[in-house]
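Sample entry as discussed:
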Amino acid sequence: MKQADIGVIGLAVMGENLILNMESKGFTVAAYNRTVSKVDRFLAGRAKGKNIIGAHSIPEFVAALRRPRKAMLMVKAGQPVDDLIAQLLPHLEPGDIVIDGGNSFFGDTIRRCRELEARGLLFIGTGISGGEEGALRGPSIMPGGSPAAWPHVRPIFQAIAAKVADGTPCCDWIGSDGAGHYVKMVHNGIEYGDMQMIAEAYFLLNRLLGLSPAEMHRIFREWNEGELNSYLVGITADILAHVDPETGQPLVDVILDAAGQKGTGKWTSQSALDLGVPAPTIAEAVFARFMSALKEEREAAARVLTGPTPHFRGDREALIADIRRALYASKICSYAQGFQLLRAASAEYGWDLDLGGIALIWREGCIIRARFLERIKVAFDADPSLPNLLLAPYFREAVARSQEAWRRVVATAVQNGLPVPAFAGALAYYDGYRSERLPANLIQAQRDYFGAHTYERVDRPRGEFFHTVWQEQPLAAEPGGVENA
């Protein structure tokens, strides 16, 4: 009986496309779906005549796999993954490999890895980015889990992954247990920030300058030819050129302004809070989606709450150029936050993440692929211990060139009552990071006043803590006046 090099469970479009990608690279693939009629339709349709083995039950699926068996799950994250693993377990033997290719929470991946390793099995939790087209043509793949599993899946994963110009695959081993899914989570958090910042640029061009989608299409297309070159800027240009066949209007004007989400941006923000890493741009992008979901409330509030009417009287071309620079500077800060978070998680979970290597994995195939990811790889190759991308010469100089424009854009948006939370959050992050002194001394004094939380002093070594009984101390005298009692 012919046996498969790998098997995939879950025949939604992502699962089907991955199978077809694998088969096109010379691998024989087994396919199974809980609704077995999907297997038959797949075999009679897109998989017809290809080296794809259909299975109609879990035992049949497992029997079709060459040892050590490699079973890849492409199902909805959460309980469905655990349920499917439970169905597989009675049919697997030590050394077999279970692969979760969904957008699972990294904490669940850590747990599953430990549970399966305790049974003598191997587990991989892998992030896959690139959407349906990427799955078929070449995605960015971020595997982590049981290190012993990597040599068995490496030939398949690196064959189907996207490639950079020199042929290097956008796939490499990320680290143990939940590292792969964590890196994919942060990828998605950065993606949230990117999308929100691009949307804010569009919003300013549209609401403040009154530009039509056709005019903005030309602007974004031009931006995509320079330093902002990226997948998301490119598809934005395409979207703005699209006309709704039903109404004849630009399709973007017909789409309701309420954005959905699947939770990975929220997980990224929660992890940043857990690890004490400032990631305001990513968090603001998540909150902006929450705000967008309040569509009916916003419509009611718009009728009663007052604010400036957007009206711009200055140099329109200069503002367009400023918005481009603001978008680039904000993007740098968003990636800086994401990579700071990866560094902190690497230390917390013992993953020893290769930050430059991760930038390379994201260079092609994934949703946040962008020209300047090569600059990020160069920065970490030059200094693997670089604490923040803003300190790398290229990014430091790029922000320095852009910051006057960036500040003008944020100020103009505020003056005109237009919300730009990601632009403003990124700028606040930059100003906070470059501030030698912040007002946290007052916060710490307040904490010590009401809760005896203690504080450190500027004239003593770090790590020495002090407490003041504030109510018993005289208040400072007012300048030129008498001391208050």
